[in-house]
UniProtKB/TrEMBL annotation:
GO terms for molecular function: DNA binding. Keywords: DNA integration, DNA recombination, DNA-binding. It comes from the Bacteria. Site-specific tyrosine recombinase, which acts by catalyzing the cutting and rejoining of the recombining DNA molecules. Belongs to the 'phage' integrase family. This is Tyrosine-type recombinase/integrase. Residues 188-400 form the Tyr recombinase domain. It comes from Flintibacter hominis. InterPro entries: DNA_brk_join_enz, Integrase-like_cat_sf, Integrase_catalytic, Integrase_recombinase_N, Integrase_SAM-like_N, Phage_Integrase. GO terms for biological process: DNA integration; DNA recombination.
Amino acid sequence: MAKAKDAGVFKMENGLWAYRFAVMIDGKQVARRKSTDEHGNKLHTKKEAIKAREAAIEQAHLERNRQKKLRRRTVKEVYSEYCKNGRSDRAYQTIRKQDSLWDNHLYARFGNRYVDDISVAEIYDYLSELYHTEGLAYTYVESFLKMFYLIFGQAYSRNYLDVDTYNKLCVNKDTKIHMPKRKINDDDDIISFSKEELAVLDKYFKGTNAETAYMLGRYCGLRINECYGLKWSNVDLEAGTIAIDRQMQYQDGLIKLVPVKTRSGRRTIYMNDKLKVYFQDLARRRAEDAVKFAAVREQKQRFIDDLDGSKISSTELVNCLPNGQIQTVNSMKYPTREIKRMGINFKYHYLRHTYGTMMAELNTPQHLLCAQMGHAYIHVTQKYYLAVTKSGVDLLKSNINLL
């Protein structure tokens, strides 16, 4: 009996174990040879190999039964079913982005194709065409890759793809669809402002309607939607903290406050002394303006949807003019144009890059900076520690001279 159990398992030269089998299922031979279990773990003992082999044979029977029930569907049918039943939990902007990629690109090329009739090579060629021939940005082409993973994942979960095809397309690291090789001159650098540029920006924004938004980008590294979605109730002047849990978005032409996109985006940010003093003065002026412009505010204020669907006044937002008029992400367009005329390549998001780079240069622990910036993955934060800046180069030159 022990011999029968040992059949099909063997020890490899590196000391680890593997298994193989060839069984007939409904008149069709199914053969496998693997050195890992169903979770991808290596097999360290004979017992583990026997157990993995038994599980693999059982899975082969289940998959064969599953194949009998497979129904062919076009990519259009899979995506339509996903839109109807599978994305009710997706963020508004995610849905818009998916529909844009589908309507403007994927439908014409793949919509009427059967999902089980598309090869890895065909998708790779398509991604290469987008990136190398059409010249689309690498990060934008990555959105197409995610869409393919989404569509094939949906097809597999709904029984329109067999496990071997799905694994070949999306799981097996040697065969799965992937991005084309990145161009050598493709720029994905962290762009930050120098101390000289920051001095010019500090002077430009001082006393303007956009000063508060600038200060939040400069000293907190907020994303622009987070900045303009910030409420006074989320600012704790005594503790010197700002709670980020929402952002401003345009949805169907309406301004709304919606949740931040990821769980890690919800965070508490600590203000430095300079920003804390600025907000204390801003709070004082806000209280004065509430009295001084009371009548004007009644006319100028705007009511928008908050997270829970309730209506709130624009005067509850940090970025609000003294007369109650709301400020939005569009309020940064004019300063952006003016600063570019001054010779500085300004984008609000570069303030976030600058904040992250400066904090990295000050040797802030990576996990703390990751939390402050609301990154979902630590490798995104690590880019700030690898960024080459003028101050970093100056320090390098200084250290070289010490050799």
